Structures are given as C-alpha cells and as structure tokens.
C-alpha cells in the first residue's frame, strides 16, 4: 500500500514559537480566514466567512463539549499527581458516566506517576465537605484504569469534575489553563460533554456569523465526535506504516443521515473531526453494502484503503440508514481510527474549514489530502502574512481538490 510509505518529513515546516497563538483574540470572529479555491488564495476576517460559502450549502459542525479533564491531586508529602481523563470504561457510555452519582472508572494518563506508589488520592470537591477519591485499578496499553468515587451522592460525575478539574488546553501552549479558557476553549454551540480537546475550527463562530449564514440559507447541522488526547500525538516514525492512529467515538442521528441523502448542494464541514466523522459514516455505509458491517460500528486505520468498492456517497448513506432502522437504532454510536492522508479520495465534503496545524501531524496530512501539494503554498502564505497558528490561531476555508485514491 503506497500511502503507508509516505514520509512524514515531507509534511513539515518551520513554525516559530512566536507564531503560536497562546491566547484567544478578544472577539472570536475577528480572527483571519485564509480562503483557498482552485489554487488561488485570499485573506479576510472570519466575520465575513458567509460570502465564501455557496448559497444553500450544507454546513456540518462538531458540537462536542470539552470537559475539565485535568485533575490535580496533592499528596500529604506535597507531591502533585495530575490525572488526565481520556475516556470512560465503566460505564463505557459517556452520558451514563457523566450522570453517575456513585463511582466511575476511566482510562487516564497520570503525570508524576512514580510518586503515586501506594494508597488512594483525595481532594475536596469545591467548597463542599465532600471528597473525590481516585483509586488505581490496573495498567492499560496506554495509561491506567482509575476508579473515581465521591461521597456527595446527589452530585453527578460531570458536576464533580466541573468543580475539581481544569480545562485541558493543548500542551504546545506551554502555560497553565486560565479562566478565559473555560469559555473560549469551547465552541458557542458545544453540547454533549466528552472531549479532552476542542474542535478548534468551530471556535471562530459567533451568533453574528450564524445570522449571516442564515441569510444565505445555510443552517448548522451537528454531529458529535469526542476529541481524544491522541489528536496531539505526533508522528514519530519515519513513515506512516509504523504510526498507529488514535481512535475516537462519534454519534450521529438518523435524521442527519436523511439530510445527507437529500442534500443537493455543496457540503462544508467545520473541522478535521467533522470530516473524520463524515468519511467514517461513508465507510460504514460501504461495509453495510458489502456485508462487512457488524454491531461494533468501527472503522480501522487502513480499512478504507483496503476496501475495493467505488460506491457513491448517497448510496452508502442509504445503506447505513437502512441498517440502523432494521436494528431500531435511532442514534449511531461508533468509533473510528481512520487516517486521512495524501492519496485518499475525500468522498463526503466539498469545503473544509479548519485551523493551521502542527508540522508532522496527522491533521496536516489530512489538509494535504484535501488540497494536495498546495498545502505548502497555503502555509507559506499564512507565515508570510502573520497568521496566528494552532488551536487559538486563525482559520482556513479550503475548497477540496478531488483526487483518485491510491491503494
């Protein structure tokens, strides 16, 4: 498979520390947007983004909410143990875990683990007389399973971490989270909790931007993909073959699939997580058609490159919808490990709105899959024109260049 031989060194660039946006702008929609279409580039403010989207476009956004996933426990010795929530294990369902009033078990990454040799960790919950207790359960392939319990039985786990935790801002910001991050590292339309990183392409949207979009008969449609810590995982191997892509959970309602089936206009997706979800939906539909779909609803890393089927998107959507209806599933709950890299043919979207990504990252590879070698021209333009980079940085609106898939 040729895509496995892609060298990550070919997808790097010099990013000065000074170009990384350490804090958000005062106003979300005052960020810049770089508009790329058919090889041409122009620059504007994000507040005017509506003029660059076609009338009646279908706009799809990821409405996941970032949780206060960083919990800092202080031992009697003075040692600080930081526990980073990754995903629920028991209950495995996000909604059930966050609404638990007894105890939960989560997959976690632990900082300063060597100082946590014995016993449980405890901290007070806000200004109450209640305690949150963390207990090691076992080692996992990546991280630990940790049981959290608390003695205020009227409190949901979501309320506990809201009082005890901190917003998990990206590590490359090289600073502690601040009060401003509680609101600004969150989209204005965030709803179901579950992410440990924000879908940052959506941070630029405001009520005014949505109002302007509505004048062009463009209304938001939402999917949910809970963004995992793996989104920050660099590609450390020389080629992609040795890189294991992270897995993330997503949720899509039947009525959204129906909109995909009836849509006759361009589809604009906000964020790499949204595109990852849309492409995974397509491949689940292909698996339904080819008899390979089962109740696990999972797309593995290289699966799309190995399936020999050229099926139109709407046919795939219809097959998946039919499969869900037969099983009586109103909301699809699925996981994806899909990796979108140069040589992959994007099936579902016509336009990608996204931020500027780190060198040598799978997110940059996704951008290269969308626009080809022009990613270099786009990023060079942004560097020359003083664009701000990464999570709190500026935006791109990219018209996707279709390519034939490479197997």
Provide structural commentary.
This protein is α/β, with parallel strands linked by helices and about 400 residues long. The chain has two domains: about 1-65 and about 185-400, 3-Layer(aba) Sandwich (QueA-like), CATH 3.40.1780; about 70-165, no CATH class. About 25% of the residues lie in helices and about 25% in strands. The protein contains ten helices and 18 strands. The protein has helices spanning about 95-100, 155-165, 180-185, 205-215, 255-260, 270-290, 305, 315-325, 360-370, 375-385; strands at about 30-35, 40-45, 60, 65, 70-75, 80-90, 105-110, 120-125, 130-140, 145-150, 195, 220-225, 250-255, 265-270, 300, 330-335, 350-355, 395-400. The strands form three sheets. It has a ten-stranded mixed β-sheet. A hairpin with a 6-residue loop joins strand 8 and strand 9. Helix 5 packs antiparallel against helix 8 and helix 6 (about 270-290) packs across helix 8. The longest helix is centred in the C-terminal third of the chain and has 18 residues, at about 270-290.
């Amino acid at each position: 498979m040729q895509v496995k031989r892609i060298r990550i060194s070919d997808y790097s660039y010099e990013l000065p520390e000074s170009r990384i946006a350490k804090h958000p702008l005062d106003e979300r929609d005052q960020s810049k947007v770089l508009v790329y279409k058919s090889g041409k580039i122009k620059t504007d403010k994000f507040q005017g983004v509506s003029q660059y989207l076609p009338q009646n476009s279908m706009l799809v956004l990821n409405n996941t909410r970032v949780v206060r996933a960083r919990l800092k426990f202080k031992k009697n010795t003075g040692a600080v143990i930081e526990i980073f929530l990754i995903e629920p294990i028991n209950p495995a369902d996000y909604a059930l875990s966050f609404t638990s009033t007894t105890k939960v078990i989560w997959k976690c990454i632990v900082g300063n683990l060597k100082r946590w040799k014995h016993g449980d960790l405890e901290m007070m919950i806000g200004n109450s007389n209640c305690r949150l207790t963390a207990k090691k359960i076992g080692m996992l392939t990546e991280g630990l399973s940790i049981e959290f319990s608390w003695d205020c039985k009227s409190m949901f786990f979501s309320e506990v971490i809201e009082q005890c935790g901190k917003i998990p801002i990206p590590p490359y910001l090289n600073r502690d989270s601040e009060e401003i991050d509680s609101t600004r590292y969150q989209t204005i339309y965030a709803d179901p909790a579950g992410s440990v990183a924000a879908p940052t392409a959506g941070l630029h949207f405001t009520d005014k931007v949505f109002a302007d979009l509505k004048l062009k008969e463009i209304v938001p449609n939402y999917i949910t993909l809970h963004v995992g810590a793996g989104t920050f995982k660099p590609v450390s191997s020389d080629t992609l073959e040795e890189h294991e892509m992270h897995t993330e959970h997503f949720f899509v309602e039947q009525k959204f699939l129906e909109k995909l089936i009836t849509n006759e206009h361009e589809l604009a997706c906000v964020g790499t997580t949204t595109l990852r979800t849309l492409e995974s939906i397509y491949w689940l539909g292909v698996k339904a058609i080819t008899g390979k779909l089962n109740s696990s609803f999972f797309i593995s890393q290289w699966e799309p490159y190995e399936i020999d089927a050229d099926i139109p998107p709407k046919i795939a959507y219809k097959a998946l919808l039919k499969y869900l209806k037969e099983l009586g599933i109103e909301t699809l709950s699925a996981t994806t490990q899909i990796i979108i890299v140069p040589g992959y043919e994007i099936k579902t979207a016509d336009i990608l709105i996204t931020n500027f990504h780190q060198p040598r990252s799978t997110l940059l590879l996704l951008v290269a899959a969308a626009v080809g070698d022009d990613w270099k021209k786009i990023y060079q333009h942004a560097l020359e024109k003083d664009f701000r980079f990464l999570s709190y940085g500026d935006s791109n609106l990219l018209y996707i260049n279709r390519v034939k898939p490479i197997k």
